[in-house]
Amino acid sequence: MSSLSQHLDDYILKHSEAEPEYLYRLWRATNVHTIHGRMASGHLQGRLLKMLVEMIRPKRILEVGTFSGYSAIAMAEGLDDDGRLYTFEINDEMEDFTRPWIEGSSVADKIEFIIGDALTEAPKLGIEFDMAFIDGDKRTYCECYEMVLNILKPGGFILADNTLWDGHVADPAYDHDHQTQGIRQFNDHVAQDPRTEQVILPLRDGLTLIRKK
């Protein structure tokens, strides 16, 4: 990262809502104790997720890919008192780290943390969701998108993370990388889907906002 980019990032964070102390400690612990710490949403994206929830006012949120729980807690902070978030993590090795952080948060009563494959398990909940956050296996983003659309209310929103994939989506050098291929296929599929409208935000690793018509 260039010196100018770092200064701009610092400026942006300084002029955005402060990161809650609990989430800062979770972010630090994620980076210290997990291999892929940068996967955690972090300060800026976490505050955006919370604000989007406050703007959309969903009653039920589906999250695909819990990881360390940062994004789940951030979104739950924006929920009304009767709101609930269901978050799925397919990697059962993350449970011992993540569950205590979720259960120790101030919004634990709004979060249902489930170990399992959201592709098959989320539809079994029998819930029609108002909002979804897709942040799981990039190779199955298209399948996940279709699953979510089937259980999302008309007018509901999908947020998809990592849709620029470190810029690899536009770099021919990554043509044979399976995760890059998955993201590219997803981006193309969503852009051509008449059932939705969408916009990609160049925030961190790319965040796509999608609205079901």
Q: Can you describe this structure in just a few lines?
A:
With about 210 residues, the chain is α/β, with parallel strands linked by helices. Helix content is about 40%, strand content about 20%.
What does this protein look like?
The protein has helices at residues 3-14, 21-33, 42-56, 70-77, 95-103, 118-121, 141-150, 178-191, and strands at 60-64, 84-89, 111-115, 129-134, 152-161, 196-201, 207-212. It is of the alpha/beta class and 213 residues long. A 7-stranded mixed sheet has the order 3-2-1-4-5-7-6, sandwiched between helices. The longest helix is centred in the first third of the chain and has 15 residues, at 42-56. The mean pLDDT is 95.
Number of strands: 7
Question: What percent of residues are in strands?
Answer: 15-25%
Q: How large is the radius of gyration?
A: 17 Å
Q: In which order are the strands of the major sheet placed?
A: 3-2-1-4-5-7-6
User: How confident is the prediction overall: mean pLDDT?
Assistant: 95
Helix content: 25-40%
Largest sheet: 7 strands, mixed
- What is the 3D form? globular
- Which structural class fits the helix and strand makeup? alpha/beta
**N to C succession of SSEs:** HHHEHEHEHEHEHEE
Descriptive key words:
single chain; alpha/beta; 213 residues; 7 strands
